[in-house]
Design brief:
It contains one helix and five strands. It has one helix at about 65-75, and strands at about 30-35, 45-50, 85-90, 95-100, 100-105. Strand 4 (about 95-100) and strand 5 (about 100-105) form a beta hairpin.
Length: about 120
């Protein structure tokens, strides 16, 4: 919800220990988030942003669940995820990764979480 009396809002973004960054924005994004449970108990957040027309029960509607599970599983198997946020963005590309963010095809018909 937009704060009362605020005509303009300013967002500040910060990424430490990264050689490359990326971000995305859209007035039509649905924004979903969930806590990631890391082995070391450090706070971490899984987020997904996607346009309404990409939402289905088998694809982007479960994207945050998939991000969360992927980070949790790999953090236990290999090493703990180093960033405070893991973001999955529905975009016009088939896939592109940067530290803390990944862009996936917004027209994907099925996602698989390994379950």
């Amino acid at each position: 919800m937009r704060p009362a009396g605020k005509e303009n809002l300013t967002w500040h973004f910060k990424m430490e220990n990264s050689r490359d960054v990326s971000w995305a924005c859209s007035n039509s994004f649905i924004w979903d988030a969930a806590r990631i449970n890391l082995p070391g108990s450090r706070p971490c957040l899984a987020m997904s942003v996607y346009p309404d027309e990409s939402f289905t029960d088998t694809t982007w509607g479960r994207a945050t669940e998939y991000v969360k599970a992927t980070i949790e599983i790999n953090s236990k198997l290999w090493y703990e995820y180093p960033y405070p946020v893991a973001v999955n963005v529905a975009g016009v590309v088939g896939g592109m990764e940067y530290p803390g963010i990944v862009f996936c095809d917004c027209k994907a018909k099925r996602m698989n979480c390994g379950k």
